[in-house]
Amino acid sequence: MARTLPYTARTQSGETLDFSFPLHKDTASPMRVSQLVTTILGALDQDVRTLGETANGDVLQALAMALAVRTAMIPAPALTTTAMAHQLVDEALGAVETATHSGPDASPDSGTA
Q: Domain of life of the organism in this record (predicted)?
Protein backbone atom coordinates (compact mmCIF):
# COMPACT_ATOMS: atom_id res chain seq x y z
CA MET A 1 0.00 0.00 0.00
CA ALA A 2 1.29 3.44 -0.91
CA ARG A 3 2.26 5.70 1.95
CA THR A 4 0.77 9.17 2.23
CA LEU A 5 1.67 12.31 4.11
CA PRO A 6 -1.15 14.32 5.64
CA TYR A 7 -0.35 18.02 5.47
CA THR A 8 -2.32 21.05 6.62
CA ALA A 9 -1.65 24.55 5.33
CA ARG A 10 -3.21 27.79 6.51
CA THR A 11 -3.53 30.80 4.25
CA GLN A 12 -3.01 34.40 5.35
CA SER A 13 -6.80 34.86 5.23
CA GLY A 14 -7.40 31.97 7.62
CA GLU A 15 -8.45 29.26 5.17
CA THR A 16 -7.26 25.76 6.02
CA LEU A 17 -6.20 23.33 3.30
CA ASP A 18 -5.89 19.66 4.23
CA PHE A 19 -3.94 17.40 1.87
CA SER A 20 -3.01 13.76 1.69
CA PHE A 21 0.14 13.64 -0.43
CA PRO A 22 1.36 10.35 -1.90
CA LEU A 23 4.93 9.60 -0.92
CA HIS A 24 7.55 8.16 -3.26
CA LYS A 25 8.47 4.58 -2.42
CA ASP A 26 12.02 5.69 -1.56
CA THR A 27 11.02 8.55 0.76
CA ALA A 28 13.44 8.29 3.67
CA SER A 29 11.74 10.62 6.16
CA PRO A 30 8.13 11.79 5.77
CA MET A 31 8.64 14.06 8.80
CA ARG A 32 11.59 15.77 7.10
CA VAL A 33 9.55 16.17 3.91
CA SER A 34 6.82 17.89 5.93
CA GLN A 35 9.38 20.15 7.62
CA LEU A 36 10.89 21.15 4.28
CA VAL A 37 7.47 21.98 2.80
CA THR A 38 6.71 24.14 5.84
CA THR A 39 10.08 25.90 5.50
CA ILE A 40 9.61 26.59 1.79
CA LEU A 41 6.05 27.90 2.24
CA GLY A 42 7.15 30.02 5.22
CA ALA A 43 9.96 31.59 3.19
CA LEU A 44 7.54 32.41 0.37
CA ASP A 45 5.02 33.94 2.79
CA GLN A 46 7.75 36.02 4.46
CA ASP A 47 9.01 37.28 1.11
CA VAL A 48 5.52 38.31 -0.05
CA ARG A 49 4.81 40.01 3.30
CA THR A 50 8.10 41.90 3.05
CA LEU A 51 8.13 42.84 -0.63
CA GLY A 52 4.42 43.17 -1.21
CA GLU A 53 1.90 41.82 -3.67
CA THR A 54 3.23 39.11 -5.95
CA ALA A 55 1.32 37.46 -8.78
CA ASN A 56 0.43 33.82 -8.16
CA GLY A 57 1.83 32.94 -11.57
CA ASP A 58 5.16 34.48 -10.61
CA VAL A 59 5.28 32.35 -7.45
CA LEU A 60 4.51 29.18 -9.41
CA GLN A 61 7.13 30.12 -12.04
CA ALA A 62 9.76 30.63 -9.34
CA LEU A 63 8.91 27.30 -7.70
CA ALA A 64 9.12 25.50 -11.04
CA MET A 65 12.49 27.08 -11.75
CA ALA A 66 13.77 26.23 -8.25
CA LEU A 67 12.71 22.61 -8.82
CA ALA A 68 14.61 22.57 -12.12
CA VAL A 69 17.74 23.99 -10.48
CA ARG A 70 17.53 21.55 -7.56
CA THR A 71 16.95 18.66 -9.99
CA ALA A 72 20.07 19.63 -11.97
CA MET A 73 22.11 19.70 -8.75
CA ILE A 74 21.54 15.99 -8.08
CA PRO A 75 24.58 13.96 -9.15
CA ALA A 76 22.70 11.57 -11.43
CA PRO A 77 21.80 11.41 -15.12
CA ALA A 78 19.46 14.26 -16.10
CA LEU A 79 17.01 11.81 -17.65
CA THR A 80 16.68 10.02 -14.31
CA THR A 81 16.31 13.13 -12.15
CA THR A 82 13.88 14.91 -14.47
CA ALA A 83 11.72 11.79 -14.74
CA MET A 84 11.55 11.59 -10.95
CA ALA A 85 10.77 15.31 -10.65
CA HIS A 86 7.95 14.97 -13.19
CA GLN A 87 6.52 11.97 -11.34
CA LEU A 88 6.66 13.69 -7.95
CA VAL A 89 5.06 16.90 -9.26
CA ASP A 90 2.28 15.01 -11.06
CA GLU A 91 1.47 12.99 -7.94
CA ALA A 92 1.59 16.03 -5.65
CA LEU A 93 -0.68 18.03 -7.97
CA GLY A 94 -3.07 15.10 -8.00
CA ALA A 95 -3.56 15.69 -4.26
CA VAL A 96 -5.00 19.13 -5.05
CA GLU A 97 -8.16 17.49 -6.39
CA THR A 98 -8.90 15.80 -3.07
CA ALA A 99 -7.70 18.56 -0.73
CA THR A 100 -10.36 19.88 1.62
CA HIS A 101 -10.83 23.60 2.14
CA SER A 102 -12.30 25.10 5.28
CA GLY A 103 -12.40 28.49 6.92
CA PRO A 104 -13.47 31.99 5.96
CA ASP A 105 -12.32 31.88 2.32
CA ALA A 106 -13.16 28.26 1.48
CA SER A 107 -14.46 28.06 -2.07
CA PRO A 108 -17.96 26.66 -2.50
CA ASP A 109 -16.79 24.02 -5.00
CA SER A 110 -14.02 22.73 -2.74
CA GLY A 111 -15.95 19.73 -1.50
CA THR A 112 -16.50 20.97 2.03
CA ALA A 113 -19.92 21.23 3.59
A: Bacteria
